[in-house]
Here is the input.
Amino acid sequence: MSKTKQLNHITTENGDFEGNGSYGRYVFLSGSGSRAKRVAEHHFSNLVVRKSDRGHDLYLGTLKSEGESIDVASISTGMGVSSIEIILSELIFAGARRFLRIGTCGSLQPEKIRVPSAVVVTAAVRDERASADYAPIEVPAVATPEYVEYLNKAAIASDWGENTYCGIVHCKSTLYGREFGYSPLKEVHDAYIRNLTNLGVLATEMESSLLFILGMCHNKNIKPISAIDTPEDAAQDISVGTLLAVIGDDQPFSDAQELKGKSVEKIIEIALNFVRLHYRSVCVPV
Here is the structure.
């Protein structure tokens, strides 16, 4: 079978992911199509929509920040690692380099992390099958440290520091099997999840490990901490991060619809503030 970089699931045009000087367009990734659309329609100016037959519409626009216009995009990756593998790969093939997942999760520390809360992800437990096609399981799935730093700053700037936690999350292949236990292996799954809780893993979700591993696979710009990127270097960097809304604690899905909605709306606010803070640091001349 011949190898191809044809885009079969998303629609883009040349230059869609350029912008912000040489840095490139920030891309918000949502599992939910309605969330990807809401982020764009409620917060983007100069909105352009690239329709997808697969339902992964790409929204392009700008975000206002202190007189500047920041180039941004929003798209749904669908649910689970198999879906994000396809969409993220095609985005990278099309030239995208800056990715922030804004998703949802269930708390693994319900005594402390309750709905509504947010989680800034530092790394993900690779309890799924897709990322093993890209890297040995011993390779950790880690977010871009700079993105973690600025997500934490954005949470504080959004007055959500008391409700935001930073750390490792669990990424799984199956929701009803691994997490909910609708499986002949229920006792095995329950014991595994208990071990993660005892180890201090904050929450469980379904996409971040593959996001982080794919970012590593495509990012070849290795440099010392003192290095100052040239525009050419910066254009080749791939940056990946995840910000999660906690929508379950004692129950996998909380019955408190208003609180779940508050979690989601707050992470969108934090994500937008992250872009503004990070853009001013990286893209605005001193």
